Amino acid sequence: MKDLVGTVEFNRQLAPRYFHIRLRLPEAVGVLSGQFAMLRPQGLVEPILRRALAIHRADADAVEFIYLVLGRGLEALTRVREGENVDVLLPLGNTYPTDAVTLEGRRALLVAGGVGSPALFMLAGDLVAKGADVRVYFGGRTKFDLPALDEFEALGCPVTVTTDDGSAGERGFVTAPLERDLVADAGPNGSVIYTCGPWPMMARVGAIAAERGARCFVSLEASMACGFGICVACVVEVCEGSFAPPFKYQKVCTEGPVFPAEAIVW
Amino acid sequence: MKDLVGTVEFNRQLAPRYFHIRLRLPEAVGVLSGQFAMLRPQGLVEPILRRALAIHRADADAVEFIYLVLGRGLEALTRVREGENVDVLLPLGNTYPTDAVTLEGRRALLVAGGVGSPALFMLAGDLVAKGADVRVYFGGRTKFDLPALDEFEALGCPVTVTTDDGSAGERGFVTAPLERDLVADAGPNGSVIYTCGPWPMMARVGAIAAERGARCFVSLEASMACGFGICVACVVEVCEGSFAPPFKYQKVCTEGPVFPAEAIVW
Amino acid sequence: MVSATESSRDPRLAVEVAGIRFHNPILTASGCCGYGLEFEPLFDLSRIGGICTKGLSAKPLQGNPPPRIQETPAGMLNAIGLQNIGARAFMEQKLPRLRDYDVRVLTNVFGYTVDDYVEAIHMLNDGDGIDGYELNISCPNVKEGGLIIGNDPRAAAEVTEAVKRVAKRPVIVKLSPNISDVAGMARALESAGADALSLINTLVGVSIDIHTRRPRIANVTGGLSGPAIRPVAVRMVWQAAGAVKIPLVGIGGIATAEDAVEFLIAGATAVQIGTASFYDPLATVKAVDGLSAYLDKTGVASVSELTGSIDLSPPPRGH
Amino acid sequence: MVSATESSRDPRLAVEVAGIRFHNPILTASGCCGYGLEFEPLFDLSRIGGICTKGLSAKPLQGNPPPRIQETPAGMLNAIGLQNIGARAFMEQKLPRLRDYDVRVLTNVFGYTVDDYVEAIHMLNDGDGIDGYELNISCPNVKEGGLIIGNDPRAAAEVTEAVKRVAKRPVIVKLSPNISDVAGMARALESAGADALSLINTLVGVSIDIHTRRPRIANVTGGLSGPAIRPVAVRMVWQAAGAVKIPLVGIGGIATAEDAVEFLIAGATAVQIGTASFYDPLATVKAVDGLSAYLDKTGVASVSELTGSIDLSPPPRGH
Ligand SMILES: Cc1cc2nc3c(=O)[nH]c(=O)nc-3n(C[C@H](O)[C@H](O)[C@H](O)COP(=O)(O)OP(=O)(O)OC[C@H]3O[C@@H](n4cnc5c(N)ncnc54)[C@H](O)[C@@H]3O)c2cc1C
Ligand SMILES: Cc1cc2nc3c(=O)[nH]c(=O)nc-3n(C[C@H](O)[C@H](O)[C@H](O)COP(=O)(O)OP(=O)(O)OC[C@H]3O[C@@H](n4cnc5c(N)ncnc54)[C@H](O)[C@@H]3O)c2cc1C
Ligand SMILES: Cc1cc2nc3c(=O)[nH]c(=O)nc-3n(C[C@H](O)[C@H](O)[C@H](O)COP(=O)(O)O)c2cc1C
Ligand SMILES: Cc1cc2nc3c(=O)[nH]c(=O)nc-3n(C[C@H](O)[C@H](O)[C@H](O)COP(=O)(O)O)c2cc1C
Ligand code: FES
Ligand code: FES
What we know:
The complex is a heterotetramer, with 2 copies of chain A and 2 copies of chain C.
Chain A: E1 2-15, E2 18-24, E3 36-41, E4 51-54, E5 57-59, E6 62-68, H1 72-78, E7 85-92, H2 99-102, E8 107-113, H3 118-129, E9 134-140, H4 149-154, E10 159-163, E11 170-171, H5 175-185, E12 191-196, H6 199-212, E13 215-219, E14 235-237, E15 249-251, E16 258-260
Chain C: E1 15-17, E2 20-22, E3 26-28, E4 50-52, E5 69-72, E6 75-78, H1 87-98, E7 104-109, H2 114-124, E8 132-136, E9 140-141, E10 147-148, H3 153-166, E11 171-174, H4 182-191, E12 196-199, E13 203-206, E14 221-225, H5 230-241, E15 248-251, H6 257-266, E16 270-273, H7 276-279, H8 283-298
Parallel strand pairs in C: 3-16, 4-7, 7-8, 8-11, 11-12, 12-15, 15-16
Antiparallel strand pairs in C: 1-2, 5-6, 6-14, 9-10, 13-14
The complex binds flavin-adenine dinucleotide (FAD) (2 copies), flavin mononucleotide (2 copies) and FE2/S2 (inorganic) cluster (FES) (2 copies).
Residues 29-32, 54-55, 78, 80, 82, 108, 136, 174, 201-202, 223, 225-226, 229, 251-254, 273-276 of chain C line the site of one flavin mononucleotide (FMN).
């Protein structure tokens, strides 16, 4: 974890309210898939808090993020231009357990919902690079809510797209093709599901995995003030026994953001 | 007084910490010399208050300001680029009484200190246009503190420059050449002095005027929250009898910013 | 200027506080609108629900020496010192012109002793066009050696009772936020006969220039207002709403219709916009229009349905 | 990590509070630094004056359900609910590693009854490497039906006296800002034996989502912190400084060395940085360096000369 000053290489709009930013870093930082960063335009006075964004891509000395503007924090980020600076604390959080895929040869099913996709992109790339059998399920409300779909498609693994309104791919929820394929696929080795998206979607994915006996890892979001464990704001309620006592609340920023689906009280 | 949205035509740096901004207005606004505006980059959340700036120049549908960045309000203004919007409330305040110059034919001595000069520039232009005998005394700490000196010089009236460090014009305070000329000039019609600059400078100019029996008008600054009379923050203490009772404190934004020098408790 | 007519008004916005009918729940806050007339060049005063004047005293007051204000993060400190022309001059010079507008007028009143309040109210009782009084009780009590009347439920109730005895119009008492027990204060004022409560006044603050080491306000302490204090104000409205039955007027950091809705949901029937008018002189009229838009979008039938509608059921997971 | 050595330290920054010598007056605030160790990857803990831990109770606590925070203008609300691993686990798991650093450690302690405090202090008395205690008295008093101990001088003094009887280390009592009479509270705590006072804790606030009409914090109320509250905190430090002789630790919205200096001038001997560490994790070390730079620039010989040096002479005209 380092607090660095990143310099904007580009910060471009992908779709209404979606942006893609690339920051050059003053030093190399090792990033694991699923990790995130806390960002704030340098010198910004209001709003005070940094925003958490999944690391979409990491090179030796640069990182990329894809973000959906909900309020004034990320709105302020959209106004930062090439050559300007962004304070960035990274890398934060844990990573996806992948032994079951890379060592045991199970299939990896990545289920992304909207802007949950950046949290899965490095994982997809890593697993494809290791020759794993990776399938991506990407759901969005409309065709404008499939940020960086082209980057997933460029990885070469099969990508199934759904939209709530049918404006791209299958009409309906992304859990429909997932369920279909899980039934069709039910083989001896089974699958490991990795998912990031809206809470109800992840809850449903977790339930599907439990029904089918597939392992499932979810990448959670939570309101964060610090991103590195000092505020104890970002908690999620976990099931008894899933973590060492005494806490039923675990911090998403340090114990997560990746959790086994069955550990979460949905 | 109107609350308008101005669009930046240019916003360029003149010298370290000095900027010159031009805003196109959506409608024509009649501006008198000495009036000011309250500005804020549109959508800015912090700092909350607008900043008061003298109207340096006004065309039918555009206004210009010259400003010295002291803190984060005007700092934020420097970041607004061509085509972006600025909320601007204008025109505000009173104007300079000029009958003694234009009707009685007295000489006008304009004494500017640093960024006090924009408050005098329209006056200088108006008086020169009316054929008055105008002399400008422009003092700054250094040669970098003489904003828009070239614009004063372009008016064609004599401009005497002083700097505290001698980096431009005469070394010393601007009150030195003023005193010299007032003595030399002492004729039947006398002079009218108009001044805007740091408080101690204006206090000294007022005292010089009083000694010599010259009329003197000062354009004051004060901490302002609103600029149009609703907060009662921007007061200056006035001498008894100089304004109608009951107040010894007068609002700079509505009773001023121009006051007869002798009305002020310096 | 032609005044807003009945027909140009959104009937869904009408509210009643202390028996006073307001066209809409957006009022100006005391000390942040002069005597109301300062807004004449900017908008038709009849478009807003009400005007609450600068604090008036029986006699004119000079106020504090400058500097009187200082900007702070998302807020400002002020110590104007209640400079005002006095109740008499207000009635002679300002009130007749306010009568040109179809807007409710509350006169904010303050004093250092019970007699000060009573004297001012006696004068204002004669004012034609005043709809109600708002008592500012956040002044040092000179009798009790400078303790703030509004921080002491007994003193505050005493002022309220004395004023209620003479007032010919409804009395709204304005709470100081510099207290530990809002509910207790609210109950004391309700028992003392207040027709409504408004809250909050400013939080006491200090700012020091680290170069000169001098306070940035000549009076040393000033009142903190603006968006910075909004969460404190919403909390106090919510606590007062749980304690009393009389209506509440929410104040504190309100800048937009959305902010106003937050106070209504917390328990207010109307709101006042203060500091925001300094940096957004049209904030009040924009908030009126914004309230209509909010009702359109949400399908809520009227603003009064919002009052006290806070939902305290547990939130869904995943937030 | 190699610790800051004596020689790398600026001796002009050393201060003493309640008999505890700090290398410099910059401490972390409770609840805004975990147990200190979370900063290990970012900076050498020996560079700052002290660490004030997350509030510890005798037994571990689960804390409140989420959402626990909400951003507000220039500030934030929190209702963490004092989730903590308990005094015992702190001493076993955290304290030994903190001893690797040359930094003073204050353990923040809280409880719902006098006995809770005494029990926690008894445990912590055994902790090797603890330099002092900070009592958080802003908790609801379960005995008195939920009234806040820190809002009542008698209850606060009672806790202080009980703790002082058993504490083997200096006791700093942390004031709630939700009170009307800071000076009175400060005097009550000084009389009760507090070795120093720290102030302020958070202001109580509420924020409501106008779309769901639900409070944005599951606990409904939360504590307001951050730059928004700084003027209130400076004011309270200044008022407390005028009321008591024991040293003060200033807290509230401090983000930079300049902010820290403002609190020192108001009367504080040291300060704590809270919320700022969330958005600027290096805020504390930057403030330490900034203090040295301030002394260089102004020629002031040491930070302790700043304490209480506010200049109340009338300001020059023209401001
Ligand atoms: C570990 C982690 C990784 C994340 N990765 C990404 C990412 O790669 N790309 C991305 O676009 N976003 C990501 N997010 C979510 C992102 O942090 C928030 O959407 C962002 O903070 C919102 O900031 P804002 O300024 O746009 O809106 P704010 O002003 O903070 O909020 C505006 C509105 O959105 C609501 N809101 C705020 N945060 C959330 C949230 N997390 N979920 C739902 N509603 C919220 C608020 O309650 C408010 O109503 C991630 C979050 C976490 C914790
Ligand atoms: C009627 C009027 C006309 C003005 N015309 C101009 C103009 O044409 N050009 C121009 O550059 N400025 C002008 N000013 C002054 C200008 O308004 C302030 O300098 C400005 O508000 C500072 O804003 P800031 O954000 O840069 O600094 P802030 O963040 O507001 O303040 C930074 C520091 O400067 C100090 N400060 C703030 N305002 C003043 C002030 N008025 N005088 C001295 N110190 C101050 C503050 O106390 C603080 O220490 C005018 C002021 C008035 C009242
Ligand atoms: C400059 C100024 C002057 C004020 N004068 C008064 C006053 O005379 N009487 C009063 O009751 N409140 C006065 N107030 C308090 C406001 O009416 C209001 O209660 C407070 O500012 C909080 O609201 P806001 O955040 O919207 O400004 C004043 C506030 C400001 C900023
Ligand atoms: C998330 C959070 C948790 C806090 N937890 C505690 C606590 O456990 N004990 C305590 O005394 N104060 C606690 N505080 C209060 C801070 O220590 C500090 O007094 C307050 O936040 C004001 O300082 P700041 O504005 O610098 O944050 C907490 C504050 C925050 C923001
Ligand atoms: S975000 Fe602060 S502890 Fe997780
Ligand atoms: S600036 Fe508000 S009254 Fe003059």
